Amino acid sequence: MSIEISHVGKRFADFVALDDVSVSIPAGRLTALLGPSGGGKSTLLRIIAGLERADTGRVEIDGVDATALPPQQRNVGFVFQHYAAFKHLSVRRNVAFGLEIRKRPTEEIRRRVDELLALVHLEQFGDRLPTQLSGGQRQRMALARALAVEPTVLLLDEPFGALDAKVRKELRDWLRRLHDEVHVTTVFVTHDQEEALEVADEIVVINEGRVEQIGSPDDLYDRPANEFVMRFLGPVTQLGDQLVRPHDLRLAVDPADGVPGRVSRITRIGFEIRVEVTTADGQSVTVTLTRNEFLALNIETGTDVRLRIAPDTPTTQLSTHAPTLRTALTPTH
């Protein structure tokens, strides 16, 4: 089921949460709303769900005007960051809850719950209480509960934000596989760039209540629309007045063409080597190399080198009004 968001605006007192936002979310796709905290992505998700009312604009779900519809009439499943489980009910009863309040036949409920517990790999934990599950298991239970009523749209608000990095990575992989099985239109909110790039079919970058860019993960990473998108989606460094990915810079020790500089620091981080180079005009530039590339160069702190941008590399002109950037490396999650 497709979702059409047209010219939606939302204010909280003097704070503009959304400013004339228009987005088309394709049917059956997994779409990420990505942006910094406070950028408006969760507000947009809640407006799609009907948990917030837009001040202006229109929301259509599968061609039906849902702008004024209450949440229970939109047929959406919503998963919160902190599970929102009924602690006194078993896993099985949590998953069955939406079906029970809709007064579905007992046998239908049993069959549907069995199917969902198997789908999320929790069939052996159906009689446990939520407090007896791990964080990852509770989040899978929450997803099963949301899917129980066969929603046309599944909405997830930072679903893995409360989990540690290893569990988050496992659940990202699991969510992608689950989506490929059930094919429900899914929209999830995240501020984790790696999560969006790895899981989503399409990414909507939202900042300060406005849409900065919409596209596939490859489009946004390789062809960012502006300086904000390039900075936000992955590591960047600056050479002259150009923003560039550190892995798109080349180092040479012979007197070839390029910007002269001197190696000021070398840091190994797992499989990659980060080499900081100070140019003749004092600019600090970071270059990311593989271990084999680094060994082939035979460089150390103090080595004179030349810097150049690899051919056919997308770059972004640094705004003349932006603060000087030395190096910005996006932290991994």
TrEMBL record:
Keyword rRNA-binding: no
InterPro entries: AAA+_ATPase, ABC_SmlMolc_Importer, ABC_transporter-like_ATP-bd, ABC_transporter-like_CS, Mo/tungstate-bd_C_term_dom, P-loop_NTPase, Sulph_transpt1, TOBE-like
Domain ABC transporter: 3-233
Chain positions covered by the region annotation Disordered: 314-333
UniProt-listed PROSITE patterns: ABC_TRANSPORTER_1, ABC_TRANSPORTER_2
Annotated GO MF terms: ATP binding
Keyword Lyase applies: no
Family matches, as SUPFAM superfamilies: MOP-like, P-loop containing nucleoside triphosphate hydrolases
UniProt name for this protein: Sulfate/thiosulfate import ATP-binding protein CysA
Organism: Micromonospora andamanensis
Gene assigned in the entry: cysA_2
